[in-house]
Amino acid sequence: MNEQYLTPNESNKTKIRLAARTFLVFMTISFLLVTCAGANSTMELKVGVYPNEPLISQEQNGTAIGLYAEILESIASKEGWELKYVPGTLNQCYQKLDNGSIDILPAVPNVPEIEQHYILTTETPYTDWGIVYTYRGSGISSMSDLNGKRIAHMDDIFYENFNSSPRNSNISYSFISASSYIEIFEHLENKEIDAGIISRSYGEVYEDQFDLERIPFVISPTEMVFALSDDTDPEIAKQIDADITQMITENGTIHYMQENIDTGKTDEDLSTWESPSWLKFSVGIGVGLLLIFVILSLTLRNKVEEKTYELNSKNRELEVEIRERKIAEEKLKQYSLDLKDSNELKDLFTDILRHDLINPATVIKGYVEFLIEVEDEPQKKEAMKAIERNNKKLIELIENAAHLAKLENMDDMTFKTLDLKEIIEEVIEHLMPKLEEKNMNINFNPSGNYPADVNTTIEDVFSNLISNAIKYSPSGTIINIDVKDVDDTWEITISDEGEGIPDKEKPFVFDRFKRAHKVNIKGSGLGLAIVKRIVDLHEGSVEVFDRTDREGTTFKVTLQKTKI
């Protein structure tokens, strides 16, 4: 119908209907675009991953693993973030943070030079520090003993702080760079180096695989946090802190198991889009029916996408829960195997000794050594030295107790042919400072080689027995060591010139538990208990009796010769 034949009233009605229809089309399209944009508003965050096991690392299939990866996965599942992991070295990850290639880098040290360049979270899931390890029987027990020694390290913050410490200005070290912490452990076990700097987080997980000792010293305690690039929204850092705060339990540990997560979005989360002006006026009345069909199709698609998003979110929650349950099941299986031939209470006590007690004692040792060096007032300095001596005894007691518990859980050992003469001479060399301090000598005149099939722990037997002989003998005396060939065994005797052991106490010297009730016996008894356990694992024997030629005590160890 031509508009020129309509009455004025009919013409106005037609214009109103046309305007209303055009406005309806515009509003419908805007609503659909807003809805579609809101359904796909998941935030993608790129996360840097570098080798720092067990805090963060990446498996061959590209999956990020470790404490910080699991914490971030839990937060992302709760907040609706999609994480994309970007691997690299630590320096490469820092470069990617600088140029905005990644948004987040987990497990970085909270130090001023890092804080100047990036946005750091404030909540700390884990505090790491450097630990110095050495092989058992090395004779290294303090930082001063490292002078002139070979020290392996990785290029991390602990090595940098150790090397730049002012207290080391008068000490000379021979540093050896390693590609991994496991490489340092292997070099130490093979005695190819004297010491190695390992992170606490890595050492506490893998130190049980090696027969090594810690030097009671702490290097640079550092809070490990998340770093964000300057281009990343600072609100993300605040959200990570808020979620970590909720994960921290009453005892201060991190709990990142999945909770019920509300995946609903508020109006503030929806992205908005304003159509261009030309589009508002380009939609004609003639496409009305087609537009209705499009509206219904898009509305249905939007509903499907919403339900798909909800299902995917629930699937992610289930995947995280299943993964956490699998981890828990594996840990329970391993724990069950560990408890198979031992008492649960003893294992718990051993774990407390080796981790919860030795760490604070080690921290005390490091700070006391530092305070002694900088303190000038004699009275305070003597008090600090008293603390250092007693703390050293405490550390020795804890380490011996943990070592004894570890030996008690062993059923057998691996053996190889070693020369007892070389082992005894090496022990004597390590104990020379103690001998010189008391002006004592050792009389050991081997007539040849003494090959025997033994484990390297046999060195602890002679180290304990000779150390006790030095400790309980008067200054200026002589310790006699003799090796006799008796049938298919070697009989090694170690004799001192001390005050001796009463006959009624001799049956208890190797038994720590019976010895605990004999208050008049000197020492804790852990060293001799370790001696007895190692000799038993070698199917040998150890005895104690009085010297016949003079006052003093003789310990006799019998070991099998090498079978030809």
Break the fold down into its secondary structure elements and pairings.
Blueprint: H1 8-39, E1 43-49, E2 57-58, E3 64-65, H2 67-79, E4 81-87, H3 90-99, E5 104-109, H4 112-115, E6 119-120, E7 126-135, E8 150-153, H5 157-164, E9 174-177, H6 181-189, E10 195-199, H7 200-206, E11 212-228, H8 234-247, H9 277-282, H10 288-338, H11 344-374, H12 378-408, E12 416-419, H13 420-430, H14 432-437, E13 441-444, E14 451-454, H15 458-471, E15 478-486, E16 489-495, H16 512-515, H17 526-537, E17 541-546, E18 553-560
Keywords: ATP-binding, Coiled coil, Kinase, Membrane, Nucleotide-binding, Phosphoprotein, Transferase, Transmembrane, Transmembrane helix, Two-component regulatory system
Pfam family, one: HATPase_c
GO molecular function, one term: phosphorelay response regulator activity
Describe the protein in words.
The structure is a single chain. With about 575 residues, the protein is of the alpha+beta class. It folds into 4 domains: about 5-40 and about 265-335, no CATH class; about 125-220, Periplasmic binding protein-like II (D-Maltodextrin-Binding Protein, domain 2, 3-Layer(aba) Sandwich), CATH 3.40.190; about 345-410; about 415-560, 2-Layer Sandwich (Heat Shock Protein 90), CATH 3.30.565. The protein is about 45% helix and about 20% strand. It is built from 17 helices and 18 strands. It has helices at about 10-40, 65-80, 90-100, 110-115, 155-165, 180-190, 200-205, 235-245, 275-280, 290-340, 345-375, 380-410, 420-430, 430-435, 460-470, 510-515, 525-535, and strands at about 45-50, 55-60, 65, 80-85, 105-110, 120, 125-135, 150-155, 175, 195-200, 210-230, 415-420, 440-445, 450-455, 480-485, 490-495, 540-545, 555-560. The strands form 5 sheets. Strands 5, 6, 7, 8, 9, 10 and 11 form a 7-stranded mixed beta sheet that branches. A 5-stranded mixed beta sheet has the order 13-15-16-18-17. It has a two-stranded parallel sheet with strand order 1-4. Helix 12 (about 380-410) runs parallel beside helix 17. It is elongated, with a radius of gyration of 36 Å. The model is unreliable at about 1-10, about 30-40, about 255-280 and about 515-520 (pLDDT under 50).
